[in-house]
Every structure is written in structure tokens, then in C-alpha cells.
Design goal:
CATH architecture of the largest domain: 3-Layer(aba) Sandwich
CATH topology of the largest domain: Rossmann fold
Number of strands: 12
Keywords: DNA-binding, Transcription, Transcription regulation
Distance between the termini: 77 Å
Shape: elongated
Low-confidence stretches: none
Number of helices: 13
Helix content: 40-55%
Structural class: alpha/beta
Order of helices and strands: HHHHEHEHEHEEHEHEHEHEHEHEE
Protein name: DNA-binding LacI/PurR family transcriptional regulator
GO molecular function, one term: DNA-binding transcription factor activity
Largest sheet: 6 strands, mixed
Strand order of the largest sheet: 7-6-8-9-10-12
Number of domains: 3
Radius of gyration: 25 Å
Pfam family, one: Peripla_BP_3
CATH class of the largest domain: Alpha Beta
Strand content: 5-15%
């Protein structure tokens, strides 16, 4: 900044005001100073600015799996929403590992990000995140149950799964399989919705119709579908925890000569672009990415702007829509 002052003949204070866009500086003076700064390749010292303002204008975003198409799209939406508000985004991935999640959260704290948006690995193991909230650190979860004790914005996964399975029941299916994690410390909402829909219809959940994919990818869905369809009394329909798993299940049917939905119906979750354009377009629960990310970013900015103690946590659950396509039909 002193170099710019020496080049233009103005004081360092005048240069500082001009580069910050102060209305106190005449426009012709501001233009001369900005031109000189550009000629000198001047870059503001963001670290020094943050020490004065106590804001870094950066947000930490923790994802569970960068290869998940829904999370990739959410990350892009979050980055754009934050950029509109003058914030930069730092990304990190926990790879569905709790210890790694704790490590990247600590890393973001050491970088002094102004707040965090987190897709937690588990909806049940949140003590390390609650500790941040108790210290009045701005953090918003992007998946959670209503009793999380932390600000959260999420699609109501339990409701979405219930609607998906209820649709299959209405189509005449009674043996409905589920491809979802059975980790006792994991995320139960989709499985709870599956069980609720069956129970409401007077159908007893059959443990043999549950397959743990031990992952979230297409190939994991393929082998989980293989397990279900090798049963002596196999399911006539399958609900999967995400569309990647559903695409794997669909691929299994193609490789094994089964027709969808005539031989087996398939429903996914997230409504990613590939679901609509699959060989057999998939029925899927719509994950309202833009709405979720806009509301989460708005809440985080509100928390960042709060002076003193943060307000009571607010959990927003969005009621999802079921998008019905060719992979389900009424069973004759």
C-alpha cells in the first residue's frame, strides 16, 4: 500500500480508503489509485484484514463423499450462494470416517473460518459438533434429526422413504427390499420411513429383505441387489438409500435378464440427473438441493452476524416430493 502511495503521491490512508471503495475519496482520485495498484500488482493482505475485522470471509464445508453426485451438486450450489455474499468456500471430505470428520473440523477451526456447513457422517454421533455450538461457533448441519441440538437444514429423509415405500405398496408390492446401511450408529431415517410404511400397511418387515451395501456407489448397489435377488422368495420391489445404489441395482437386472418394472420395481433417493436418464428412468425421492443449500447458507450467515450468544438452534426439515418414472408401475 505504501508503494501505491509513493507512486501516486497520496497518503497511505487515502490509498486505503480508495481501495476499499470509500465514498470519501473523489472518483478521479480513486481511479488513479486503482490504476497504480493494478500496475504494481497490488493484492490486499487478507490475513491482516481478518485480524482487524475478526472475519476471514471464508466458510468450511465438510462433505462425506465427494463422489456422491448429490453432494457434488450441493457443494457447487453452496459455493455459488456464499460467493454472492462475499464469502469463499474451503472444502474437505471425511470419507464417511468419524475420526477424519473430527480432524477436518479441527483443521477448519485452525484456519479461523467464520463458520461451517457440515454433512455429518452420522446423525447420532454429533457430540463434537454440539461442542462447537455450545461455544457459540456458527455451524449448520445439512442432514440431521429434529433433536440434533444443532442448527440444521435437511430434506426429511424419513418422510421421503415413507413416501417411496408407500408408493410401492400402492402399486401392489408386498415383498419390498431395502438397500441401505445397517450401521447401528449410522443414519436411520430412511430405514425408519421404510419400516413405518410397511407397518402402516399391515406388512411385517422381513430382515432377509434388507441388504447392507457397505458403501454408497453404483457397484455397491449392484452387489447388494445380487444378494436380495438370490433369495428363494425374492422381493418384487426394492427401495435404495440413494440413486447411485439404485443405478447399480438396475444394472444387475440388465445383466441378469430381468425387466424393470415388470420383474422388479426400483426406487431411488436424491433424484440426481442420471436417475431421469437411466436405461429405465428411475422413480426417486427428490432432494431439493437448491432449497436446502440456500436456507442453510442464509442461516449460517445469520449466525455469523449474531453478536454475543447464538440463538436457540433451529432445525428445518423439507418435505420431499416423490418423482414417479418408469421403474415403478402397478403390479398386476
Amino acid at each position: 500500500m505504501k508503494d501505491v502511495a509513493d507512486k501516486t503521491g497520496f497518503s497511505v490512508n487515502t490509498v486505503s480508503l480508495a481501495l476499499r471503495g470509500s465514498p470519501r475519496i473523489p472518483e478521479d482520485t480513486a481511479i488513479r489509485i486503482r490504476d497504480a495498484a493494478r500496475d504494481l500488482n497490488y493484492m490486499p493482505n487478507q490475513v491482516a484484514k481478518s485480524l482487524v475485522s475478526r472475519e476471514t470471509k471464508t466458510i468450511g464445508l465438510v462433505l462425506t463423499d465427494i463422489t456422491n453426485p448429490a453432494l457434488t451438486q450441493a457443494a457447487q450450489s453452496i459455493e455459488l450462494a456464499l460467493a454472492e455474499r462475499g464469502y469463499s468456500t474451503l472444502f474437505a471430505t471425511s470419507n464417511n470416517d468419524l475420526d477424519e470428520e473430527k480432524r477436518v473440523i479441527a483443521m477448519f477451526q485452525s484456519r479461523q473460518v467464520d463458520g461451517m456447513l457440515i454433512y455429518p457422517r452420522s446423525h447420532r454421533e454429533l457430540d463434537h459438533i454440539r461442542q462447537l455450538r455450545r461455544a457459540h461457533y456458527p455451524v449448520v448441519l445439512l442432514v440431521a434429526d429434529p433433536d440434533a441440538g444443532v442448527d440444521a437444514v435437511s430434506v426429511d429423509e424419513r418422510r421421503g422413504a415413507y413416501r417411496a415405500v408407500r408408493h410401492l405398496i400402492e402399486m401392489g408390492h408386498k415383498r419390498i427390499g431395502i438397500i441401505d446401511s445397517s450401521n447401528p450408529m449410522g443414519n436411520h431415517e430412511k430405514r425408519d420411513g421404510y419400516v413405518a410404511a410397511l407397518t402402516e400397511a399391515g406388512l411385517s418387515p422381513d430382515p432377509t429383505l434388507s441388504a447392507d451395501p457397505q458403501g454408497h456407489s453404483v457397484i455397491r448397489g449392484y452387489w447388494a441387489m445380487d444378494k436380495l435377488m438370490r433369495l428363494a422368495d425374492r422381493p418384487s420391489a426394492v427401495f435404495t438409500a440413494n440413486d447411485s445404489l439404485a443405478l447399480g441395482a438396475l444394472r444387475w437386472t440388465q445383466k441378469n435378464g430381468l425387466q424393470v418394472p415388470e420383474d422388479v420395481a426400483i426406487v431411488g433417493f436424491d433424484n440426481i440427473e442420471f436417475a431421469e436418464h437411466a436405461a429405465t428412468p428411475l422413480t426417486s425421492v427428490n432432494y431439493e438441493i437448491r432449497l436446502v443449500t440456500d436456507l442453510a447458507v442464509a442461516r449460517l450467515i445469520e449466525l455469523i452476524g449474531t453478536e454475543g450468544a447464538l440463538p436457540e438452534p433451529n432445525v428445518t426439515l423439507i418435505d420431499p416430493e416423490l418423482i414417479v418414472r418408469e421403474s415403478t408401475q402397478r403390479r398386476l
